[in-house]
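From the shared-data thread, chain only:
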Amino acid sequence: MNPKSPLLQIILFALCLRIISAFYSEGYLMHDDHFWVVESSASWADGEDYNNWLPWSQEELGRTPTPHYANLFYSSIHYLYFEFVEFLGFSNPNQKALILRLIHGLLSLIPLVLAYKISEKIGGIKPAIWVGFMMAGLAWTPLLSVHQLVEVTCIIPLLAFSWILTKHEWTTKTLVIAGMFLGIATGLRYQVGIMGLGLVAAFAMTSKKGWIWNSIITGISALFFFALTQIPTDIYLWGEPFAQLRAYIEYNLNSSSEYPQGSIFTYLFVILMMAAPPISFFFFYGYLKSVKKYAWLVLPSLAFIVFHSLFPNKQERFIIPALPYIIIVGTLVWHNEERNKTLSRALISLSIIINVILLAPLTVTSKNTSQLKAMNFLREAGDVESFLYVKTDGSAFPPRYYLDSWISYTVADEGTVVKDQRIKHCHDESIVKPNYLVFVGDSHLGEYVAEFKEAYQSMEYVSQFGPTRADRFLNYLNPRIALKRSMIYKIDPTLECSEVTKGENE
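Structure, as C-alpha cells:
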C-alpha cells in the first residue's frame, strides 16, 4: 500500500464492494426498509398513500386522522428522491431501486472517511488504516450500506457529530455544529437521541468546570435541528409539532412487548459477531476500558447500547449505529497496547479469514426476491386488473412498488373460505375483480393451490419464483423465518362470476 494515499485506496476498495452489492443485492432485507421507506414514499410520489398514514387517506376510509408511529423524516427524503428521478424520466421501478442502492452505497463512504479521520487524529495513520478497512469491508457493511436502513444512514450525521468534537476545541461554535449533527441524526432515528445523555456525562468527566454550559449549548442546538427535521411535516399533516414523535413514544410504551425480546446480552452477542470476531472481543474490552480516555466517543455510544439492552424490543439492526464507535476505540486501544506479537498476528489472521469467508456471499445476498419477481412479472404482463394475494404460511405483503401500480388487491389466508371469497368478488361492486392469484408460502403452498383449483374453474398456472439461497440459509438457522415461494395463476373473472351466477340459479 502506498502510505501517502491510504484513504483513497480504502475508499476505492469500499466503492467496489458497494457497487457490486448494489447490482446483485436485489430485494429487501426486512419489512421496514422496504414497506416503511420505499413503498410509502414511492406511493406518495405517485399521488397515492400505500400505508394510509396521511390524514386525508384516513378520512377517506372513514377513520379519525391519527398520526402513525413511524418517523416520516427518512421516508420524506425518499419521496423527494422518487419525485426527482421521475422528473428525469426514470419509470422502471427496478432502475429506480438500483439507483437508490447506489446512492446509499456512495453515502456510506462518508462515515468511512469520518471514522478514518477520527482515528488518525487521535492515534495516527496505522490505526486509521485499520479502521478504514473495517468500515469498508467488514462482512456486513456492503450489504447493509446499499439498502434503505435508517439505522445505517443515521451513522453519517452521528460520526460527523463525533468528528467535530474530536477535531476542534469545544467552543460555543463547535458545540453548536456538533449539536446540529446530533439533532439531524436523532431526526432520522429517534433512539440515537439517547447519545446526548452520554455526551453530558462525557462533558462532566472531561471538562468539569464548563460541562453544564457545554451540555446546554449542545443540547439546545441538537433540539433545534431535530425540531427542523420534524416540525414542518407535523405542522403540514397534523397542525401541531411533534405529533409523530408522540405517537412513536406512545406506541413503544404500549406495544414494545409484542416484538422480539431477547436477553440483556442480546446486543453484546450482535456486537461481537459484527465487529470481526475473534478480535472483536478485544475491541469491545478496549472500548469499555477507555471510558475516561475517549469519553466523548465511548459514553454517548455506550448510553445507546445500555438503553437498547434494557429496552424490551430487541431487533439486531437497532444496535448498528454504535458499531463504528466500538471499531474506532477498540482499534485505537489495540494499537496502543503491548501484547504477544505471535498471538496478535494469529488473532488478526483468523479474523480476516472469517470476515472474507462471510464477506463474499453477503455482498451479493438477495432476500425476499420471490415476491419482488412476482410483482415484476405482473407488471410486465400488462393486463393486471387486480389480484388476490394468498398467504399460505404466515405474514406476507405484496411489494406493489415493483408492480408500478397501486391498484387495490384482496387477501386470503388460513381463515378464508375460498368459495365465499369467490362469491364476494363477484357480488361486491366495491371490489375490483382479480384476474390473477398470487400464492406466497412454503409448506402449505400445494394444498392451498389445490383448494383454490376446486373453486376457480379458469385457474391457469403462469409462473413461480422460489426463495433465494440467503432465504433458505436463514430458514435453516431459524425455522421461524418462513420461506416464501411465489406462484402466479391467471383466472378469468367474467367466467368465474358467470359460474357463480349459474350455481346460484340452479
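Residues 369-505 form one domain.
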